[in-house]
Design brief:
Elements (H helix, E strand, L loop, with lengths): L10 E5 L16 E4 L2 E5 L7 H19 L3 H13 L5 H18 L2
Parallel strand pairs: 1-3
Antiparallel strand pairs: 2-3
């Protein structure tokens, strides 16, 4: 992955709740969330399938996005989320694309 995140600083947490579960809406549908160099994955998360690896790759792309622009990325993320929604969000499009590439390379199909 070009411009790979500084993995030595990444921390991964698994718990029954993840940040912002308390906000209104159906937050329980989210399996993972990344804030700067911290990744939270909802239990019971296990790296047992290609999908679970792809989710981890996806969240690592978000770490890279935070590292590229630690101050402006979270603000732009929230703005684009409001304007474009999750599916058409540029950061999510990038994360899905890179995660799919990493999955294909990792599992060599």
């Amino acid at each position: 992955m070009t411009n790979a995140p500084d993995l030595g600083r990444v921390r991964i947490f698994c718990s029954p709740t993840i940040p912002f579960d308390w906000l209104p809406g159906n937050r329980r549908q989210y399996i993972g969330i990344t804030l700067w160099n911290r990744i939270w994955l909802r239990e019971p998360f296990k790296l047992t399938s290609e999908d679970s690896y792809e989710l981890l790759f996806h969240e690592l792309v978000h770490v890279r996005q935070f590292q590229r622009n630690p101050i402006t990325f979270p603000l732009k993320y929230l703005l684009y989320l409001r304007v474009k929604g999750y599916r058409d969000h540029p950061a999510e499009i990038e994360a899905r694309a890179v995660a799919a590439q990493l999955r294909a390379a990792y599992f060599l199909k």
